[in-house]
Every structure is written in structure tokens, then in C-alpha cells.
């Protein structure tokens, strides 16, 4: 997929490469689904490449990537067998320690090495504290690229040691073009709903199609319109999401609910804003907890539906 909206980030990155002293740590911040990891991999290859040294096409020995691993041996076996597998909730301190051991050796091909952490906001507390030591005293020739969807979750001391690269959201027309290229099987109505729900993230739009969220979106719209006083719509919402949804589906549903409330907030009268803002804040909290808490899926979906229902009167709330 051709990545759109990265021009400013590339200019800043390449200005840094051409400078006398390249900053040792970069924070790639922006909404999930904007292609920050793809940028990080491409930028790291530019960083470590040196004239006269052939570069491998596949995995590069001087680019280390820390990300969520399979959560246990059973899931690791699934990965080895080429099956879908469940990820661990956090990037573990053992992964950071192993990376630090690698940094005690020289780069394999040239004089530089890149470390990518994706997503950096998924590091557990011990991982963050361990990484901080490397950021404070980086080995010569080592550069860090931290991919973050929610940079506020990072330690302030980590953020302060990084040069910030912001990745903007895209216009609806750009997302529609990407959907036309990447999801041609989706009908026009589904693509339009995906664009509206994506809130500027092409990744979110593609996930909307992949997870078949159009029926979920329609039920969410009805809930915020009517308030669902008899819980009928919330029951249908739970059935549509499924009794045992995978973590990726739950994450996509939470993102969709947050996007819908954000759109409501933009159009709501001032008097209706407090209810929407409160519900959105609760959804943000649930989104942060969902990867690390063992929620009962049915209860979680009902909670999402309840938060949506609580905003039903907000769109027509008269200004005080």
C-alpha cells in the first residue's frame, strides 16, 4: 500500500540524516493505522545503509524490532505453524534486556544500528525504566525509533529524550482511494461507512471492512439516537459482535465507538457536550484497559452500549 501523509516526516527525518549530529531517539506519534511502523522500517534502512555495503532484501541484522510477542508457548506454536495467534499484552522487560545485550556488540554490516519499538506505549513499567537507561546513555552508532499511538502513556522522561515526528490523519478522499485499492470487494455503502468511522486513519478504515463492522456501526448509530431504553439494541449489538470476539475485534469496536462519539461532539450543541465528553473519556479508559484486563466480552459490549446510550439526548440538548 502506498503510504500517504508522510511527506513532512520524511523531510524532517532526512534533514536529521544530513545534519552534523543525528538525534539518537525519535518518537513517531500519531493515530493508530497511519503507517508509522512502515515508515520506521524504511527510515531505519536509510539510516543503516552505507555506500559500498550491500544491504539484504529481507530482515536486516542491524535493525532490531521489539514488539508484542505471542502470549505463551501455545500461541508461539501457532505462529510457527503459520496460524493466527494471540499476542502478549505488553512488551516485556526481558525483550528490552535482550536488546541491550545485543547493543554491547558492534553492528553487523556497517557502523550504525537501529532499534524500533512498536508500539512503545505497550511497554510494561519495567521495560520503560530499562529502556530509559539506554536512551540516557545510547551506545555509539545506535538510534531508537519509538512508534506510539498514545504517546501520553510513555514516561515523560522517555518523551523528553526523543525528537518528535508527528503523523497527521488523512482526508476522507484519500482514505476512500485507499479502500478502493485495498478493499475492492466492499460495497459502496460499506466503504462510505468505513471512511466516516475511520476518523482519518486508513488502517482503521481497512479494519472496519475486515471486521465487517457495518452492522455494528448501524446499531451504534441507533443507540445514540434512541437511547435504547429497553436494552433491545444493546442485545443485538452483543450478538453482532459475537459471544467470543477476538481481541482485535474488541479493539476495533472500541475504536469505532470512540470515533462515533468524537463526531457527535463536533456537531453537538454546547449544552450536550458534557455527556459526550464523559462517555468518550470512559471509552478511552476501556480501550486502555481492554488489552490488559480479562473483561467478560458480553459485559464489556453492554458497557460500551450503555456509554453510547448515555449520550442519546446530547445531540438535541438545548444550550443553557
Describe this structure in words.
It is built from 14 helices and five strands. By secondary structure, the chain is of the alpha/beta class. The model has no long low-confidence stretch (mean pLDDT 90).
**CATH superfamily heading of the largest domain:** P-loop containing nucleotide triphosphate hydrolases
Mean pLDDT comes to: 90
The SSE order reads HEHEHHEHEHEHHHHHHHH
The total number of structural domains is: 2
Short description:
This is DNA polymerase III subunit delta. This protein is 51% helix and 8% strand. The chain has 14 helices and 5 strands.
Task: Give the secondary structure arrangement, pairings included.
Blueprint: H1 7-18, E1 25-29, H2 36-48, E2 63-66, H3 73-80, H4 93-102, E3 113-117, H5 125-136, E4 142-148, H6 156-159, E5 163-166, H7 172-182, H8 188-198, H9 202-210, H10 214-226, H11 232-241, H12 247-267, H13 273-289, H14 297-309
Parallel strand pairs: 1-4, 1-5, 2-3, 3-4
Helix pairs in contact: 4-5, 7-8, 8-9, 10-11, 10-12, 11-14, 12-13, 12-14
